């Protein structure tokens, strides 16, 4: 039997795609799936770019009601995040995450591509000023407080720095470059149900990059997955995960 750590021991560059499953042991509920936050039938409408632009106050009412902001902002990295950070001692690791919880950043991983943005930031669509979500929790509808040279306050309604429905994912070219140059693509905690990131195993296959899925269940499309390990992330131990 070959452990996960042994399986990658001859690698130089590793690309890792992480999904919501790895954050469940940190107390963060999944966004999709049976008990996911996105089972709410109004999500795709109310969390859309168009709804934010046309109904900003109602958007923020829904946003604050959907997410447990204090939970997301206070959650701590777990064994998976820390294992990925520790890999940097030996390998060049690029983490491509679908998660908005910021736990890879808290784990101090060096190279993170947040394709869906991050919950802990907001941005002013007009002047581009960033704000920490933590500082906005007492505002029902956060507004930009930047003052211009003439003394006027910007006042624009802030936008969460996450990818809303109707927006493109971020840094796709960097994602493709990381995968195409990797020795392995590890997919952790994702069932690969969200486009366009779910195409990455197929993209890896085109470049001859072997793909390993580690998750509590198979992906929705296993055609491009070379190997699969079924794992409960609450018990994650890279030395105990056997890759056949």
From TrEMBL:
Species of the source: Sporolactobacillus shoreicorticis
Gene3D superfamilies assigned: SIR2/SIRT2 'Small Domain, TPP-binding domain
The keyword Disulfide bond is assigned to this record: no
Segments crossing the lipid bilayer: none
Record protein name field: protein acetyllysine N-acetyltransferase
UniProt-listed Enzyme Commission number(s): 2.3.1.286
Keywords associated with the record: Metal-binding, NAD, Transferase, Zinc
UniProt-listed Pfam families: SIR2
InterPro entries the UniProt entry points to: DHS-like_NAD/FAD-binding_dom (IPR029035), NAD-dep_sirtuin_deacylases (IPR050134), Sirtuin (IPR003000), Sirtuin_cat_small_dom_sf (IPR026591), Ssirtuin_cat_dom (IPR026590)
Residues noted as binding Zn(2+) in the record, renumbered to the chain: 124, 127, 144, 154
Residue numbers annotated as active site: 116
Residue intervals of the Deacetylase sirtuin-type domain: 1-244
Stretches of the chain forming a coiled coil according to its record: none
């Amino acid at each position: 039997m070959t452990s996960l750590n042994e399986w990658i021991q001859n690698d130089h560059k590793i690309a890792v795609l992480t999904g919501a499953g790895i954050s469940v042991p940190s107390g963060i509920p999944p966004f999709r799936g049976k008990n996911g936050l996105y089972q709410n039938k109004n999500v795709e409408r109310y969390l859309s770019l168009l709804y934010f632009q046309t109904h900003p106050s109602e958007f923020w009412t829904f946003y604050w009601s959907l997410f447990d902001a204090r939970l997301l902002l206070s959650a701590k990295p777990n064994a998976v995040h820390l294992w990925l950070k520790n890999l940097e001692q030996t390998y060049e690791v690029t983490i491509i995450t679908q998660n908005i919880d910021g736990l890879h950043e808290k784990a101090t991983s060096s190279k993170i591509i947040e394709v869906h943005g991050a919950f802990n930031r907001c941005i002013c669509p007009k002047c581009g000023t960033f704000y920490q979500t933590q500082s906005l929790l007492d505002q029902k509808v956060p507004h930009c407080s930047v003052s211009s040279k003439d003394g006027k306050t910007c006042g624009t309604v802030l936008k969460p720095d996450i990818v809303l429905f109707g927006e493109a994912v971020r840094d796709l070219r960097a994602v493709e470059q990381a995968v195409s140059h990797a020795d392995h693509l590890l997919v952790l905690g994702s069932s690969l149900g969200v486009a366009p990131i779910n195409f990455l195993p197929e993209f890896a296959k085109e470049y001859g990059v072997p793909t390993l899925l580690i998750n509590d269940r198979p992906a929705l499309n296993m055609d491009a997955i070379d190997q699969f390990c079924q794992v409960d992330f609450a018990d994650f131990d890279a030395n105990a995960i056997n890759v056949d």
